[in-house]
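Subject: Interface between my chains keeps coming out wrong

I've been trying for a while to get a sensible model of this assembly. When I model each chain on its own everything looks fine, but I need the whole thing in one frame so I can look at the contacts. Pasting all components below, labels as-is. Any help appreciated, I'm running out of ideas.
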Amino acid sequence: MSLTGIALILFLLFHASMNVVALISAEGYNMICGFLGANWYAVAATVGLAGLVVLHFIFAFWLTFQNWKARGTDRYAVTSKPKKVEWASQNMLVLGIIVILGMGLHLYNFWAKMMLVELVPCTGNHELATNGVYWIAETFSCPCYTVIYLVWLAALWMHLNHGLWSSMQTLGWSGKVWFNRWRAISCIVSTIIILMFAAVAVAYCFGYRPCDFNDVVNVANACHAGGLC
Amino acid sequence: MAKNISVTIKFWKQNGPKEKGHFDTHELKNIPDDTSFLEALDIMNEELISEGKEPFVFDHDCREGICGMCSLYINGTPHGKTERGATTCQLYMRKFKDGETITVEPWRSAGFPVIKDCMVDRNAFDKIMQAGGYTTVRTGQAQDANAILIPKDDADEAMDCASCIGCGACVAACKNGSAMLFVSSKVSQLALLPQGKAEAARRAKAMVAKMDELGFGNCTNTRACEAVCPKCETISNIARLNREFISAKLAD
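Reply #2:
Try treating it as a single job with all components included. I did that and got this:
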C-alpha cells in the first residue's frame, strides 16, 4: 500500500510539472503530449500506472475489510475524536473513492480524447489527439468542470497529505525526529502538486491563455471542422 | 472544597461474548466530586445490590494507574477524559458536571471479546507477549551493572516504552482495532537495548504474526492510539516495529 502510494505520488509530481507547461507555452505543452502519445514507452508506462492504481485500490479494500472485521460487531454508542486525529486519516478510503471517481472523469475528459484515439482509430478526432491545450481550454471553459476538478483536487490533497507521511511511517523510515519532518514534507509536496494542477484549471477557466495559444487553437479548430477520422 | 454532584450512569450490560448487550441506567445522587470514578461505580453497585439488582461488572485492580486492569470507555474516550497520562482509576467525579449522563462502554474490538458487561478478555495481549516479548536465557547471564554501556537517551526511551501497561486503550480507540501501539512498545523496550538486539528479528516477526492471528486490525496511522494512551506511548514506536519487521523479513 505504501509502496504503490509513493509511486503514485511520484507520478503525480511528474504529471503536475508537465501540466504547468500549459501555462507557459501551448506549443511546448503539445510537444510533451506528442512525446507522451501512443509511443511504446508511454503506453507501457500507462499500463504500469494502471496496474499501480489497481493494486493500490485492491490493497485499500482488503485492508479496510480486515480492519472492519477486527473492529468487532458492536459499535460505540458515544464517540469523540481526539484533537490530534485528523479527519483525513480516518477517511482515506472515502477520499480514495472520490479520487478514483475524479480520475474516471479526468480519463474521459483527456485520456479518451488523446491517447485512446491514437491507440484505437475512429474513437475521436485523430488530429486533435496530441493537442493537449485545446482539450484543457475546452474542458475548463466550462465552470462546472472547474468546480468539480477543484473538489476532486481538495480530496486528493487530503489523501496525499496523510498518505505520504503515513507511507514513510509504514516503511519504518520515521521516528521522533523524522515524524514531524515527514509531516511537513507531506504538506509541502501535496500542496505543490495540487497548486500546480489547480493553477491550470483555474487559469484556463478565467480565460488565461499562453501567448502562442491562438496559433495552436486555429489549427485545432480547422481539424475539428474536419470531423471525426 | 469538595461539592456533591448527581449524575446518571448509563452502563453496558452483556452476559457473554455471544449474547446481545444493552444499556442500563442508574442515578447516583450527592456523590462528593473528589470521589474517584471507580469508587462511584462501587457506590452504584452497592445501591444496585440493595435494590435486588445484579451489580455492574468491570475490571479494576491496583487503582493507582500502574496495573492496566481498568478498561472503561467513558463518554466516547478510553479511560475517560482524564488528565494526560492517566487511567480510569485516576479519573475523578470533578471531571463531570452536575446532572450529566455518563456513558460507560467496554473496549469494543474483535480481539477483546466481552466476558461480562464491561469486563473484556485481554488474554490476546498475553499471547502476543508469549510469542516473543522477552529475552530468552540463551542470551547469557546477567551482566555487571557497567559491563554493557548504554547511552542515557536509549535507556530512557526503552524505559518509556516499557511503561506500557497493556491496558488495551490503544485497541479500543483505534477504528481498525489495531494493537500496533502495544506490540511496538513491547518490541521497542527490548530493541533499544543491547540485550534485546540478539533476538530482535525473531521477536518482531513472531509478535506481529501472533497479533495478526488473533484478529487485530492493521495500522493506518490515525494516531488515535497515542492520543488516548495513558502512558503516553508514541507512534514512533510503531515506525520502529515496522523497521524491525521489514529488516527481519528482508534478512530471511
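Reply #3:
Confirming on my end. Chain A touches chain B through 37 residues (CB under 8 Å).
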